[in-house]
Amino acid sequence: MESISTSNGRMINRSLEWVGDIGIFSWKVMASALSPPFEFREIFRQFDEIGSKSLPLVALAGAAIGTVFALETRSSLARFGAKSMLPAAIIYSIIHEMGPIVTGLVVSGRVGAGIGAELGSMKVTEQIDAIEASAVNPYKLLAFTRILACILVLPLLTLVTDFCGVVAGWIATTLADPISFQRFFYAGFSGVNFSDFLAPTFRTCVFGLIIGLVACFQGMHTKGGTEGVGRSATSSVVLSSLFVILADVILVKLILIFFP
Amino acid sequence: MKNSIADTGLSTPQETRNPDEPVLMVRDVHKSFGAQHVLDGVSLNLARGETLVMLGRSGTGKSVLLKLIIGLAIPDSGSICIQGKEIAGLGLSEMNQLRIKMGFLFQNAALYDSLTVEQNVAFPLERHTSMSAAERGDRVKELLRSVGMEGALKKLPSNISGGMQKRVGLARALALQPELLLLDEPTAGLDPITSAEIDDLVLKLQEENNLTSVVVTHDLQSAKVIADRVALLDKGKVVQEGSFEDLVESHNEFVREFFKRDS
After folding, report:
1. Which of A35, A130, A136 has the CB atom closest to B110's CB atom?
2. Quick one: DSSP state of residue B13?
3. Which of A208, B17, B179, B261 has its CA 20 to 30 A from that of A91?
4. What is the nearest CA distance from A210 to chain B, expressed in angstroms?
């Protein structure tokens, strides 16, 4: 029993230490961002790395959820004689929940692993030390640029997921029961207002902050050679996905309170 | 050079300093990693234009001392002064002003693997000088020529050998015309001819630019050629300090044992 409580205590200690360390890391990143140079070139490079290169994956994920949702929901709604509600159900679900969370999870997988492995590899090969020795702040050059790119790019990628989901949902619907895209679109968006669209899309900025911050922290704190790089990549994905899901639950509740 | 570091306003003018003041003063420095005491009261002085070679067995804290000097790690106690400035109390921007005046060659070169050789050497120039792209290009070519790597401009570090990476790392360390050069095993893993070339380059820099250097090495031949003074470290302490010949003729048992293999 004692060994279990000891190991639990150690785990709690490690978790608290991690929270403290990521807090200090966040502070250093924020402090570094306030002074010039502002690393615009690196920020644009990261837009491309994180944004453009994630486009095919999020588009595919959006199309997949749109198709599956249309196929699954159609039979359920048909059972209750509410087939006409299908466009609204697809569009509302994708915009409100599935688009943002799927984008968050897909990006945390692709970008989280990428940042964790890249910065981890730079750490174990002393490249981060070399940046610091060159009198350049690595928190700004490596971490701030990536975190900012994640924050700004996530809502844009969410729009792509939403669009592909809606189009794929229409294709799946029209194959079973032909309907024009225009009719599908108007039927779907008739009950949706601007706040239904705005708050869920922009909550992905928080997902971007979580993904960027966790992946940069895990990468820049890599220890132990190539094995450590692997561990950083894995932990970046696991932790950022976990915190994205937790943040989603909290943000959905807050959105329901502030945008009823 | 029109836009070199000296006229960008980043370098403190030499004439404002006392020429007799040591460039580097290390006083009673201790450093531990967990239970492991790596440095246990190291003290060293380095005069302008002097080359100090630090010898010692692996794991005696030589590389750690270099990292403490450039501020990549913080000593547990003791003092490190560079050009009269105690680095312990410096803020990041002040520390960076000092780092600009130092060149650091890492043990494994630590080149940025996503950048080409040219971009690696240009990195500090882009950050800390107001050179135009053309001037920067000329300076990069000049630096790479001085280390015999002018043909590898567009290559990635992964496409050149370890020895070549070291030479590019040296070119990068020299980019801002440093006043203090810190070299961590510059000849480790290199063939004897390349090692001799690196030694010649360090000597040339010392003669032409009155460059002050701290060199960590296991290469006794290299130490013999480049050292004005040698410090032998063991168990985190300086066992003996003096000229290479002084150490060769030492009566200290550890020093004799260390030099026996080479003789």
Report:
1. A130
2. P
3. A208
4. 25
